[in-house]
Amino acid sequence: MSEALLEVKHLKQYFPIRGSFGKKLTLKAVDDVSFTVERGETLGLVGESGCGKTTVGRAILRLYEPTGGEVVFEGETVGKNNIAKMRRRMQMVFQDPYSSLDPRMTVEDIIGEPLDVHHLCANRKERRERVLELMATVGLNAEHARRYAHEFSGGQRQRIGIARALACEPSFIVCDEPVSALDVSIQAQVINMFEELQEKLGVAYLFIAHDLLVVRHISRRIAVMYLGRVVELADADELSDYPVHPYTQSLLSAVPIPDPDVTRARKRILLEGDVPSPLNLPTGCAFRTRCRYATEKCAEAYPDLEDRGGGHFVACWNK
Amino acid sequence: MSEHLLSVQDLHTSFFTDAGEVQAVNGVSFDLDPGQILGIVGESGSGKSVTAYSIMRILADTGRITGGRILYKGKDLAAYSEKEMRSFRGKCCSIIFQDPMTSLNPVFTIGNQLREAVLLHTDKRGREATDRVIELLELVGINEPEKRMKQYPFAHSGGMRQRVMIAMALACEPDILIADEPTTALDVTIQAQILELIQELQEKLGMAVILVTHDLGVIADMCDNVVVMYGGRICERGTAREIFYNPRHEYTKGLLRSIPGVNNMNKKLEPILGSPINMLNLPAGCAFCARCGAAMKICLNEVPEELAINDDHTAACWMNVRRMLEEGGAAV
Fold first, then answer.
1. Pick from B297, B331, B327: nearest CA to B318
2. Is the CB of B43 less than 8 angstroms away from the CB of A268?
3. pLDDT 10s digits, A122-145
4. Is the whole model's pTM more than 0.90, yes or no?
5. Closest by alpha carbon to A6, among A37, A34, A32?
6. Residue A63's CB: how many other CB atoms inside 10 A?
7. Chain B residues within an 8 Å CB radius of A191
């Protein structure tokens, strides 16, 4: 299966910001990002806060009007005119299961809303049956259909959010930090559910998270972002075992591994300083201010994302 | 019995709410020796933070220590007056909180806030106090401390603010530093910087550290000894290696199986079933019994005692009693 389900080409998302004294600034949240997602696969998207990973997810679904670039989904370019139709096949699961569900709607209505929007059910009986079927799919008790969101725990709410995303049988779901608000013991339940649903329904995910171990577990391939750009993209195991980009290397070395012998035997590659402001990006490679290998060339131009063999893409002058 | 730096004995802390008494901490005991890094791990609502707050006596208005003793160098903290407590905080024991964004006062400069701690707890005044502030900022790795101390918190990033919080906590060189989820709000690369800093300072100053976190990775990285809490009780305690490689409580085992680690990358995770415990309605027996795959009749009705597994390891699980009886029975 090599047919790309989703192609993101040179996606750009800039936000106008009014600085002090009314100065107009541009925040380049996403700058020239390209990748593909194949049918039924999971692409992990990792990076630190502010690197633009959530913006990428939202821009794909056109929750923002992209500044530039193109998103091709199932062979069709996503545009203003067809996005409403496209959203039947592309859905999203949000990070915060507390604020992403309407507190005044019952679970049945929350899950049923996409069915109404896309006119997928002929009558109320059919709709109810479909909702109950979806609730069973995500492991919710059918008796709870008339309850409100506040009556559920975090893990159960995330299940409601997933059932809502599944309602119109999408082939692609953007999962924006879907487990980071959950307790450790609940995370595994939801991760397993994502995996089972994929096996059963063949849905593809863009799995956005900052927890590298979780992303590595669920993804087939991983893209690493730094300040609006993808710096490395490779097969999950390849990326974890043989990271090439200096940022990926330090990111991986900084992840605490729940195994005392392993984690203490490792050498942390500490990065100096903080992430630069996205309003005032360094010239050339944005990572050069914290990079151990930075040379003059890095300040001059941004390195392109190039294939180093076997689908291992890296954007770095020195590697 | 040799004297411990800090000894918490059978601590009970409750919150009295409209819905009833919430027993957040239910008979927690542990000892802390100088130079030790003790990790307290558990999920939200397990009582790990409340234990830390009880030591500092900074509980919310509705909270009260209802039983047990906290001994600092052999002296009972319950006998301390509010005034004595105030000098205990900061001088003997300080705390850093999870959220560096909200724990600094936005309308005072960094230097001003650090100076306050120095003036309160030491007899340094004027230029001397300012020098101490600069020294502290240097200690926690902040560049250009003279410039930085004149800035307000908003001018600093999350990692920088957490450094300032650590500097403040260390102002009087306390014997104990309590770090309550110190890196949860930070990014991984910044987290690594802060953890490295805490480790470095601990070695340099020889203080004891209590690290409260839900992240088993951080625990594995940092701690000599680990206490695992669930539902306000300690399930298991031991050296980090014992806890990770020889877990003897069903909750610890479940927790380790349910997180992605090095060994289960391509295997399915084994989640802990059910949802976290409702602290208003604790079961009569083991707090974990409702979610435990190995629960027996006795687990529902009786709270398991902590049982020594070996010199470095105890666990409160009826499974260990059963195993012992079976082994004992076989021997007889």
1. B297
2. no
3. 899 999 999 999 999 898 888 899
4. no
5. A37
6. 13
7. 260, 269, 271
Token duo for residue B149: 């101390």
CB contact under 8 A, A188 and B189: no
B271/A48 CB distance under 8 A: no
- What number of residues does chain B have? 332
The answer to whether residue B221 neighbours chain A at the CB level (below 8 Å) is yes
Angle between helices B82-91 and B110-121 (to 10 degrees): 120
Please name the residues between 137 and 176 in chain B that touch chain A, using a CB distance below 8 Å: 157, 159-160
Which band of pLDDT confidence, cut at 50, 70 and 90, is reported for residue A34?
very high
Q: Please check whether residue B293 touches A, CB under 8 A.
A: no
Give the torsion through C-alpha atoms of B318, B320, B324, B325, to 10 deg: 20
In degrees rounded to 5, what are phi and psi of residue A285? -70, 125
Query: What distance, in Å, lies between the first and last C-alpha atoms of chain A?
Result: 31
- The continuous run of DSSP H or E covering B236 comes out as strand B233-239
Q: In 3D, which of A319, A273, A271, A317 has the Cα closest to residue A295? A: A317
pLDDT at B1 over 60: no
* Residue B190: CA count within 13 A, CB half-sphere: 21
CA nearest to B263 within chain A: A259
Q: Using CA atoms, how far apart are residues A248 and A243, in angstroms rounded to an integer? A: 6
Chain B residue numbers with beta carbons less than 8 Å from the beta carbon of A188 are: 258-259, 269-272
Give me the amino acid identity at B225.
Answer: N
- Split at pLDDT 50, 70, 90, the class of A216 is very high
Has residue A1 got a pLDDT over 70? no
What token pair was written down for A58? 């939202």
Q: Which pLDDT tens digit goes with each residue over B53-88?
A: 999 999 988 999 999 999 999 899 988 999 999 889
CB pairs under 8 A between A and B: 129
Q: Which of B142, B85, B78 is nearest to B110 (CA)?
A: B142
Quote the mean pLDDT of chain A: 90
Binary contact (A255, B188; C-beta < 8 A): yes
Query: Between chains, do A186 and B240 touch, taking CB under 8 Å as contact?
Result: no
Mean pLDDT of A258-274: 86
- Residue A189 to residue A158: CA distance in whole angstroms: 11
Residue B332 has pLDDT above 50, yes or no: no
Find tokens 């309602």 and name the residue.
Answer: A167
* Residue contact A257–B261, C-beta within 8 A: yes
